[in-house]
Write a structure and sequence with these properties.
heterodimer, A: 111 residues, mainly beta, 7-stranded mixed beta sheet, 4-stranded antiparallel beta sheet, 0% helix, globular, B: 119 residues
């Protein structure tokens, strides 16, 4: 299995400030033949299912605000929330789909 | 817009079989390019992929569940099913069905169903 490790486990950010979440995979999730990173990010609010935010490491899902952005390649990835809003309080997960799907342990974002 | 809804018993006894159904609406489960997954999440815990099935009924399971899981699909009813045998308290979790795009990322999820394993 590819192990996904997120950091930090939780972070507290002021409204309007930037939140940065890191995700590291135990092996590269970059497919050289098409230069795609098989990495997605999800947001999960209490009592709700996860919601897809980002796929291919940096492509924003339709309808996701542009304050959410993804970056990184190979084994190291970042989800950035620029200008945190109250509705962004949630747990965020990274997910690799290069091999059998695995998820990070989650990062809780609070205000 | 596709919608997924899990159903089944919320309480299962240890050593018995957990059986869940996911009903798909808003789009046909036979639509090309998608796979249908089961994912679970213990309370306060992380997401764990159980397996996926395609519209033809070909399933792929996580090695962690391979020996005791069966998934099936009923395209006439737009439903997929999960059977997990010999459950223990460690199988207590919220179970989600989810659609993935070509065995890649999960773009649609059900609301989830909490299943408790207890006598």
């Amino acid at each position: 299995d590819i192990v996904m490790t997120q950091s930090p486990d939780s972070l507290t950010v002021s409204l309007g400030e930037r939140a940065t979440i890191n995700c590291k995979s135990s092996q590269s999730v970059l497919l050289s033949s098409n230069s795609k990173n098989f990495l997605a990010w999800y947001q999960q609010k209490p009592g709700q299912p996860p919601k897809l935010l980002i796929y291919w490491a940096s492509t924003r899902q339709s309808g996701v605000p542009d304050r959410f952005s993804g970056s990184g390649s190979g084994t190291d990835f970042t989800l950035t929330i620029s200008g945190l809003q109250a509705e962004d309080v949630a747990v965020y997960y990274c997910h690799q789909y290069y091999r059998a799907p695995t998820f990070g342990q989650g990062t809780k974002v609070e205000i | 817009q596709v919608r997924l809804q899990e159903s089944g018993p919320g309480l299962v006894k240890p050593s018995q079989t957990l059986s869940l159904t996911c009903s798909v609406s808003g789009d046909s489960i036979s639509s090309g390019g998608f796979f249908w997954n089961w994912i679970r999440q213990p309370a306060g815990g992380a997401l764990e992929w159980i397996g996926r099935i395609d519209r033809g009924g070909t399933a792929k399971y996580s090695p962690s569940f391979q020996s005791r899981v069966t998934m099936s699909i009923d395209t006439s009813r737009d439903q997929l099913s999960l059977q997990l045998r010999s459950v223990t308290a460690a199988d207590t979790a919220t179970y989600f069905c989810a659609r993935d795009v070509a065995a890649y990322f999960f773009d649609s999820w059900g609301q989830g169903l909490l299943v408790t394993v207890s006598s």
